[in-house]
Design goal:
Helix content is 35%, strand content 15%. The chain is α/β, with parallel strands linked by helices. It has a 7-stranded mixed beta sheet with strand order 2-8-7-6-5-3-4, sandwiched between helices. A 4-stranded antiparallel beta sheet has the order 9-10-13-12, with helices on one face. Strands 1-11 form a two-stranded parallel ribbon. The radius of gyration is 21 Å and the shape is globular. It starts with 26 loop residues before the first strand and ends with a helix.
């Protein structure tokens, strides 16, 4: 039977998330989730939430959460944009700001959703190679382009750049929008926030999925000039005025208000990260410096795919990317001390 409509369907290679194990007894270190629960205030919101309010549409601006974020970062509420996770915010940003015929630029080893969005929205794009140590080559962005996306710190490499490097990037790309994706910034990297008042073309994107333990609720946000935020709002309202639901707005505000819990959780993850890095080095792994809640590693004598398969058989899930330049590397999310000790013990058994 002839099916001519098939010729008009969008053909695209989608982003592939980390595996979601179904067994009851497993250690999940493959999605960069936070091993600790959300702030205590989140639990209180869920206990006392007025379910009758769900009969009404949410506040389309998410004003309570918008104000809480503005207070925390010392900016105006009109400089804050909310979305369903940072992926939603980034996708809207690609549609809003990358509208020229010139290619946008991003690192060649980075978050693999970037090229997917470019293909989906038909945006020309080029990858700028990282150096041999997987560090950003900032001079690679000194060329005509339609925009720049730079994760700081980068994933899956875990490396970050200083605020001086970020300002250098902005100074050499004043005629386009520069997006700094700060999904992992709370684990040790320098934020571009101090540059926000100086550069109207700077957009900072962050998420509550990592450092605030809310991956299951999907809350992301952007910080930028009123010009950029107004553009994002216009594009959002062109197809979906209500991005964040009422529960997410209330929970997100509670998470932002508890600064002490947030800082303690980040501190614990960083301490476990450094302890785990030392243990892996003792087992013969090359461990790259990390400013994230994960480690990017390779073993000097064992193949990454073999290690990945062995850990999986033991119900320990990490991430393996069969991609150019990193096909012998593994990305390991930082869990609790007990989870990481178990992984180290299993690796000792394997080795």
């Amino acid at each position: 039977m002839d099916k001519p409509f098939l010729a008009n369907l969008r053909k695209i290679d989608p982003y592939v998330p980390g595996e979601q194990p179904q067994s009851a007894d497993f250690i999940k270190l493959n999605a960069n989730e936070n091993p600790y629960p959300p702030a205590p205030g989140v639990r209180q919101v869920l206990r006392t939430f007025d379910t009758d309010s769900l009969a009404l549409y949410p506040d389309s601006t998410g004003r309570r959460l918008q104000n809480a974020l503005a207070e925390r970062f010392g900016i105006k509420p009109t400089q804050v944009f909310l979305g369903n996770g940072s992926d939603d915010v980034l996708a809207l940003s690609f549609q809003s700001f990358f509208c020229s015929d010139k290619p946008i630029l991003y690192p060649d080893i980075t978050y693999s959703f970037y090229p997917v969005w470019c293909e989906l929205f038909r945006i020309p794009h080029e990858a700028v190679p990282l150096d041999e140590d997987f560090c950003v080559n900032i001079r690679g962005y000194d060329r005509p382009n339609g925009g720049v996306v730079l994760p700081n710190p980068n994933a899956p490499t875990g490396r970050g750049v200083s605020i001086d490097v970020l300002e250098d990037l902005l100074q050499h790309n004043a005629d386009c929008v520069v997006i700094i994706d700060e999904a992992y910034v709370d684990f040790g990297a320098q934020s571009a926030l101090p540059l926000l008042d100086q550069y109207e073309n700077l957009l900072i994107v962050q998420t509550m999925s990592k450092s605030r333990s809310l991956a299951g609720l999907r809350i992301g946000y952007a910080l930028g000039s009123e010009t950029l935020i107004n553009t994002l709002e216009a594009v959002k309202n062109a197809y979906n005025s209500y991005t964040l639901d009422t529960l997410a707005i209330a929970v997100g505000e509670a998470a932002v208000r508890d600064e002490a819990y947030f800082r303690e959780t980040c501190r614990r993850i960083v301490a476990t990260r450094e302890r785990t890095a030392d243990a892996l080095r003792e087992l013969g792994f090359v461990v790259h410096p990390s400013l994230t809640n994960f480690l990017f590693v390779m073993h000097t004598k064992k193949d990454a795919s073999v290690i990945f398969d062995f850990l999986r058989q033991k119900n320990i899930y990490i991430r393996y990317f069969k991609l150019p330049r990193i096909d012998n590397y593994l990305r390991v999310t930082i869990g609790t001390d007990e989870q990481m000790d178990r992984m180290i013990a299993v690796l000792k058994e394997f080795l």
